[in-house]
Amino acid sequence: MYNHSCSNCSMSEICLPLGLNNTDIVKLESIVKSTAVIHAGEKIVLQGDVFNKVYAVKSGMCKSYRFDQSGTEYIQAFHLPGELFGLDAIYAKRHGFTVEALETLVVCEMDYGELQDLCSKVPTLQRQLFNLLSRDIYNSHVNPIEHFDQTAEQKLAGFLHNLLSRFQARGQSSLDLHLAMSRRDIANHLGLAPETISRLLKRFQEQGVISIDNRLVAIKQQDSLNKMVHCHALESSTAPKSLSKAG
Length: 247
Known about the structure:
This protein is an alpha+beta fold. The protein has helices at about 20-30, 90, 110-120, 125-140, 150-170, 185-190, 195-205, 220-230, 230-235, and strands at about 1-5, 30-35, 45, 55-60, 60-65, 75-80, 85, 100, 105-110, 175-180, 210-215, 215-220.
């Protein structure tokens, strides 16, 4: 583990340090540790592990997934820099999902007991933690993946639209998407067959909406992509900006 500087982190404007003054950021830094580099395929937490830490992605991308009693895998989410994971385990006291690196990854770890204690002393930090929890709940309520009235095309268009919006919230100006996840992972997440994902990506490319170079997908006609997106997906991507800055 390595000491971490929240004040110098490029994700500070969308992560826990948002809204903290310099004194409080120093207090937060005292409980944050950055991991060594985690490589693709390595796991950060396992489904069923006892909960005692909260994590934030510093760089790279990872996925959360679980297995049901029959052994079927369900990919719940893909986590980008600045996003927290592990908070869903607060209630059950055990992690409900395995989290695995999709590419070279660095995460920040916080002991949940220490975070709770610091939140009681720094109200701004507590508000920001609540804001991040609220954002996750909001997004889960309007998650386009969970609306079964969508076509496969709408699901994939919504996925690309949502991912682009999240990258742009992190300062990306281009319309390029680096898909660290496999086509199989995307299909699992969307509840579609891998063959359907491949066929739709090829169709989008033939229509001039995107171009594909291995795992790099460039959005060529953003308006056309948006027209394919179901209204629920647009809701999740246009959440109030104040959601992460309130307080």
